[in-house]
């Protein structure tokens, strides 16, 4: 039945440049569609990427369209015009948008050409929506794919949507890339750490405009942690315009000997940083899901996340890791000390291979592809009956 889906248009902000959570998710979604619909023609429309970014090897039935070379003031309207023109001319069987902001265009196309559309809902962009056009485009979407049950629940609570419209398609992780390895000698030497030194890691963009910063919460907890684990080190991986403020806080609290700002880390080096740590900590309130939790768990590392966002999904409500009130620095300190002392009451945390396998079972690419297969099969069946 899937063979009846001949053409798919996929809309993405970008794919080949910046590698944030939406971009990583979009790449996996495209890969899964290519494998599930090997004979379908996939037309991928990229808002910010440019043609020179395209890799040499691409799927034979996939073609990329680039708008990143357009001048910024013209880019969005011309991109939207391209989406409308290509859809009305080529008549795809399905449009899939990996960002909610594109859905008003999809609604217009549906009105013109009756082409069904799906859209992915990640996190903050799907919370507290108040734009009338965006609200309406969600109401008439054929399928909304929240990446977490947290985002699904918020959409149902905040928008006039039908429960059957929303089907959760969680993030996945590259378990071939993120694997269990010894602590890297190169990084131990680079930062002057010893192999038995306990290390806390956060991987997060350093963004001054975000209202809540998980690394601030760990820094606030660090003095309490140091009183019980005196030789602990805290490593923050990420770049952004918040670094100077962070440096000032570290200096004011006299934490220079215990905090390392690693800055930007290349994708092919990130696994080494997960393997460097003893616990991954990101007690956030802004994560739609948080693929970094899966990356750390895939490396067999204990993880701590916030109890008020999509981390609840990533850590399966506490079955795969620790959840804490992100506003409570004392609780964060207590929980991290428990984990570092191997006293946290979740034995799976201290069984790296079993922890990794649990993540593969729940969130590996095969699980992601299987969930998408069910959704596409249902779509094809409904289409055949229409």
TrEMBL record:
Name of the protein in its database record: Glycosyltransferase
SUPFAM superfamilies: UDP-Glycosyltransferase/glycogen phosphorylase (SSF53756)
Organism: Leptolyngbya foveolarum
Highest taxon, organism lineage: Bacteria
Entry keyword annotation includes Calcium: no
Pfam families linked to this entry: Glyco_transf_4 (PF13439), Glycos_transf_1 (PF00534)
Keywords noted in UniProt: Transferase
Domain Glycosyl transferase family: 188-345
Coiled coil segments of this chain: none
Sequence ranges assigned to domain Glycosyltransferase subfamily 4-like N-terminal in this UniProt record: 20-177
Lineage, highest ranks first: Bacteria, Bacillati, Cyanobacteriota, Cyanophyceae, Leptolyngbyales
GO molecular function: hexosyltransferase activity
UniProt-listed Gene3D superfamilies: Glycogen Phosphorylase B
Entry annotated with the keyword Transferase: yes
